[in-house]
Design a protein that fits this description.
The chain has helices at residues 3-11, 23-32, 50-64, 79-86, 112-124; strands at 17-18, 36-41, 69-74, 93-98, 101-107, 132-134. It has one domain: Glutaredoxin (3-Layer(aba) Sandwich). By secondary structure, the chain is α/β, with parallel strands linked by helices. The longest helix is centred in the middle third of the chain and has 15 residues, at 50-64.
Length: 148
Amino acid sequence: MDVQQRAAARRQGGLPEVDVSTVDAFLADVDSAGAVAVLLSAGDPARFPEALDVAIVLPELITAFQGRLRGALIAREAEAELGARFGVRVQPSLILCRGTEPIGLIAKIQDWSVYVDRISRLIDRPVGAAATVVASIVPAHQTSGAGR
């Protein structure tokens, strides 16, 4: 990790920041350590205020999974390109990767139990199993009345 990456990690609550040129090295390091990578594609917090909530939850999830997860934040200027690579359609999203392959996405902010259940299922799933997306669940009282 170079000086610039260390500075970014300190600013982001200890999580490194990755971009197009550094993401593969990060994923390889995580894979060689026997862990699963979890990348946060946050988006613009002004447009997606819950991105700040997900950014707070991510380090807690890493701690809760006791070394099985290693996280990084995707640099804002790299979100479009890496989002396309990993299949991100909604921001904020957590992208879980084994090696360089995504094994699942968790979109939006979720209840703690949803994160624990989904991440457990994803990281315990056999290598080569299809990736999954967990969409956010919007309570009926928050919908705009549009048809379902």
